[in-house]
Task: inverse folding
């Protein structure tokens, strides 16, 4: 049960969110899934896509039926975090920020320059300059009209965090959240998932026939995927080499959607 | 030596489909010595056709070490790319709160150009500190808009917390609940408000397609019609697709054919009597037949103006072919509070459960679509113009939301003519046939959108548009995105008509 791949079910669709699970599905069970998410650092294109990978219903059902995976009712697996859980998460974010800063300082600035920039004297000077500028701006404003809003000088602790440049990380998979509880919402059989109301494939005779064909071809060792771009139900390719990365890319690139 | 081969290069070669002759097809190894396999008898030759060079060829031994090495490298490159974390600069990130009860994300801090075209403002009642309910307008995002922004790393989304108030003492400018991962956003937001996975996937596809095909910033605007039903009264009529009233009380094709048959049966006897009195049987037969044919032909109406026969007693299930997204081209001057009529409307359907659109369903989409003006002939270096769109047809009507009634074809056509005359006259045929000075003069007139001069009108009359282009474009268009487990195909259906056109 423990080493089964968690397939997250949301709105009756099956997704794989963890890249390690994706590696296992692809290399051990020769199923591909289809990447449907956006790559974080390449968000303005749709040639290369990222997690999640969406499994076609046949793939998801096959994995669960072969006892290789479990379904997880994902929308219900997010209880509200307690205050302590949130604080721990917050602490992690602050640690992450500090790590960034140390890396940035050690990497980007040459040591002498960094020292000068961070020396006590320089900081004092910079603060004074900032204060002067603010006073000047205030005087100017007073000359023109009545002051509406007097900016208060921020406390130095706070401003050092908010004024500097740093990055915020938004995690794609939820497995890093301490309050995420997938285990209490998992279903290890299709029947249980159907009774739980999160899964409805196969819903009729036609679906069962599709699944039968899919399973048979999978047992023969074929790689398969959705074949709508070829006017078919599934595409399948023989596996003699151990992966379809290259073949798959070529096939899909030749069949762009009609515009 | 094999550096080029070893580099994981997922970008396919462009010339794959090109014709390659026999010599180029054989791999480099075979070129070194005489290739004895070419002398094999035909029956023994492998039957799988081979085109172009293959980096990997299936072999029973399972591929060479080099092949395996390259495959592993390319696979690891893929997984490494997938493992990359989503990091956002604190200066560029927007903050929002997901309200599961409202199915909306309210934006507290909005940054970036994406926010110019995404979201809408909605009045919400807020409990103030002194216990008074106040109505405030807030920028809100639809679920698919929120997912799109979270995925591309523009939005930090919190889930509204019911009981706990979380402290804001960390690195965030705004904390309004528990933090959401992308996975949580997918799981919780999809399924709300008719939003299915298919539609979510379609959303960024539209943006990226337009992004690719138009200008350098991402500025395609996509809006769901349904939202504006609730927002402004003027827009309520804008996108309503009501099929039944159009067909319920109008003559059907079927009845007309029946009537034509009855007419034929009645006239046949009279005709024969008349012909016998003349005494020329052969001639009379011909005349009778001709008359018979003409009567029949003339009597049956045809074309798209004739409504489709709908049995009045049947109740049809609700059609999945309803427009879900409005699409705007990037140069559209766009106001969030009063969106202009869209350039295109897109229907999104699930390939697994939805059959091909029936004639009736397609007709329903066409009825809502504007009539397209004939395509303009190609002009070298055309200025950037907005394409044929809903705007041009609905521009003359005072309320931009009225769906086009079926009976209004003639009026519509004239309005199309009116609005397109400056465009077609100046950029179109005259641009090709008239001399350069004339063209130079005509462009400013188009830019200032004044009426074209008489010369350009004359030149318009001289030349008809290319019939093939007209046929290909059709009079009306329906765009359908078909999604099968993540794979999206977009199809364009066009309604063409032979009854009118440049060939007459």
Result:
């Amino acid at each position: 049960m423990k080493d089964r791949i968690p397939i997250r079910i949301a709105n009756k669709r099956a997704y794989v969110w963890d890249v390690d699970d994706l590696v296992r599905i692809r290399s051990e069970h020769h199923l591909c899934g289809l990447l449907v998410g956006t790559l974080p650092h390449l968000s303005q294109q749709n040639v290369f896509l990222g997690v999640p990978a969406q499994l076609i219903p046949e793939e998801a059902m096959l994995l669960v039926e072969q006892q290789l995976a479990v379904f997880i009712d994902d929308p219900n697996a997010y209880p509200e975090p307690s205050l302590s859980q949130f604080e721990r998460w917050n602490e992690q974010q602050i640690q992450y920020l500090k790590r960034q800063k140390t890396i940035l300082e050690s990497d980007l600035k040459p040591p002498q320059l960094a020292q000068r920039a961070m020396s006590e004297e320089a900081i004092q000077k910079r603060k004074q300059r900032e204060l002067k500028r603010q006073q000047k701006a205030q005087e100017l404003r007073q000359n023109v009209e009545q002051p509406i809003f007097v900016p208060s000088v921020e406390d130095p602790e706070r401003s050092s965090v908010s004024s500097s440049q740093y990055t915020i990380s938004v995690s794609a998979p939820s497995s890093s959240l301490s309050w995420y509880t997938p285990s209490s919402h998992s279903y290890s059989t299709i029947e249980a998932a159907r009774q739980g109301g999160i899964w409805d494939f196969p819903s009729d005779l036609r679906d069962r026939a599709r699944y039968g064909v899919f399973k048979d071809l999978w047992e023969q060792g074929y790689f398969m995927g959705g074949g709508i771009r070829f006017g078919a139900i599934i595409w399948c390719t023989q596996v003699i080499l151990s992966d379809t990365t290259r073949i798959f890319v070529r096939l899909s690139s030749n069949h762009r959607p009609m515009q | 030596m094999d550096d080029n081969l070893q580099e994981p290069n997922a970008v396919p070669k462009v010339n794959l489909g090109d014709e390659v002759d026999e010599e180029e097809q054989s791999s480099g190894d075979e070129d070194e010595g005489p290739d004895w396999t070419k002398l094999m008898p035909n029956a023994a030759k492998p039957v799988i056709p081979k085109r172009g060079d293959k980096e990997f060829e299936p072999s029973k031994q399972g591929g060479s070490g080099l092949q395996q090495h390259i495959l592993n490298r390319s696979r690891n490159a893929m997984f490494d790319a997938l493992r990359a974390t989503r990091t956002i600069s604190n200066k560029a990130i927007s903050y929002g709160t997901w309200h599961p009860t409202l199915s909306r994300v309210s934006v507290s801090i909005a940054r970036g150009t994406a926010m110019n075209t995404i979201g809408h403002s909605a009045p919400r009642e807020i409990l103030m500190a002194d216990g008074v309910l106040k109505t405030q307008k807030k920028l809100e995002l639809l679920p698919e808009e929120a997912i799109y922004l979270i995925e591309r790393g523009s939005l930090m989304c919190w889930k509204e917390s019911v009981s706990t108030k979380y402290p804001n003492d960390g690195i965030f400018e705004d904390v309004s609940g528990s933090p959401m991962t992308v996975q949580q956003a997918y799981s919780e937001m999809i399924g709300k408000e008719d939003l299915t996975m298919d539609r979510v996937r379609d959303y960024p596809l539209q943006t990226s397609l337009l992004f690719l095909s138009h200008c350098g910033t991402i500025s395609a605007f996509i809006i769901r019609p349904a939202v504006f039903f609730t927002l402004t009264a003027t827009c309520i009529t804008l996108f309503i697709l009501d099929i039944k009233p159009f067909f319920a009380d109008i003559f059907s094709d079927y009845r007309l054919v029946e009537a034509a048959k009855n007419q034929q049966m009645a006239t046949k006897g009279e005709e024969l009597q008349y012909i016998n009195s003349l005494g020329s049987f052969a001639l009379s037969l011909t005349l009778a037949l001709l008359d018979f044919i003409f009567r029949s032909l003339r009597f049956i109406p045809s074309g798209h103006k004739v409504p489709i026969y709908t049995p009045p007693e049947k109740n049809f299930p609700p059609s999945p072919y309803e427009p879900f997204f409005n699409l705007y081209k990037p140069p559209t001057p766009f106001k969030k509070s009063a969106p202009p009529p869209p350039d295109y409307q897109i229907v999104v359907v699930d390939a697994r459960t939805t059959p091909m659109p029936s004639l009736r369903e397609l007709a329903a989409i066409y009825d809502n679509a504007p009539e397209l003006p004939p395509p303009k002939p190609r002009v070298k270096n055309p200025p950037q113009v907005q394409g044929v769109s809903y705007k041009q047809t609905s521009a003359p009507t005072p309320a931009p939301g009225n769906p086009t009634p079926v009976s209004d074809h003639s009026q519509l056509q004239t309005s199309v003519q009116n609005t397109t005359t400056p465009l077609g006259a100046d950029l179109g045929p005259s641009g090709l046939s008239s001399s350069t000075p004339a063209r130079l003069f005509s462009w400013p007139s188009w830019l200032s959108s004044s009426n074209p001069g008489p010369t350009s009108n004359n030149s318009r009359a001289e030349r008809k548009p290319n019939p093939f282009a007209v046929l290909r474009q059709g009079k009306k268009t329906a765009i359908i995105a078909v999604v099968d487990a993540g794979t999206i195909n977009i199809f364009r259906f066009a309604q063409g008509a032979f009854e009118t056109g440049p060939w007459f």
